[in-house]
Amino acid sequence: MSNPRPDDVLALEPLTAAAFAAFGDVIEPASARQVYAVNDGTAQRFHDLARVDTGTGDGHPLISIFRAEPRTLPMPLRCVERHPLGSQAFVPLSRTPFIVVVTADPHTRPRAFLSQNGQGVNYHRGTWHHPLIALEQVSDFLVIDRGGPGDNCEEVALRHRWMLPGAGELLLPPAA
Ligand SMILES: NC(=O)N[C@@H](O)C(=O)O
Ligand code: NI
User: Pfam families attached here (predicted)?
Assistant: First the structure.
């Protein structure tokens, strides 16, 4: 494979609620709309972290586990997909990082975010994203998405050969 042009390599951005807002929710305690004690004060509830949207077309929520093989970096991106009938959330059941690639349009430059410290994501219904990209080790993810009638996965091949960088790349500084 010929060496990718530097401009084809996507920078890994820190995953923050603000930066990801156009694409979905970041699932982490800081995203809670309310935090309050429950169970006689023996636990804290980080309430309402993400909007689960599964009702379109007589749909219902599914809870599954993906056991994902780690991907090798650098990595070419070949496709993106979207789920027109429902949201889709991935929550790592370990604290290994994973990469989230999203785009407003399959034929414009995607954005790549690095999830750290157990952060999860909830793609809004219709958000273009790359299939799960686990890193470092076989990792389990809790997946909350939509079951029911209808075709809920539209996949598009990328015309441009965007690349994810090697594991040692620096993160972009957080957006100002
Ligand atoms: N195919 C499947 O359920 N997984 C994808 O939707 C994904 O985003 O990883
Ligand atoms: Ni998906």
Answer: Ureidogly_lyase
The CATH number of the domain holding residue 33 is: 2.60.120.480
What are the backbone dihedrals phi and psi of residue 29, each rounded to the nearest 5 degrees, phi first? -55, -35
* Cβ 52 under 6 angstroms from ligand 1: no
| pLDDT 10s digits, 69-119 | 999 999 999 999 999 999 999 999 998 899 999 999 999 999 999 999 999
- ipTM tops the 0.85 cut: yes
Q: 156 in ligand 1 pocket by Cβ < 6 Å?
A: no
**Domain-embedded: residue 173:** no
Instruction: Supply 123's token pair.
Output: 């793609």
> Residue 168 is encoded by which pair of tokens?
């040692």
Give nearest CA residue, ligand 1 atom 2.
Answer: 131
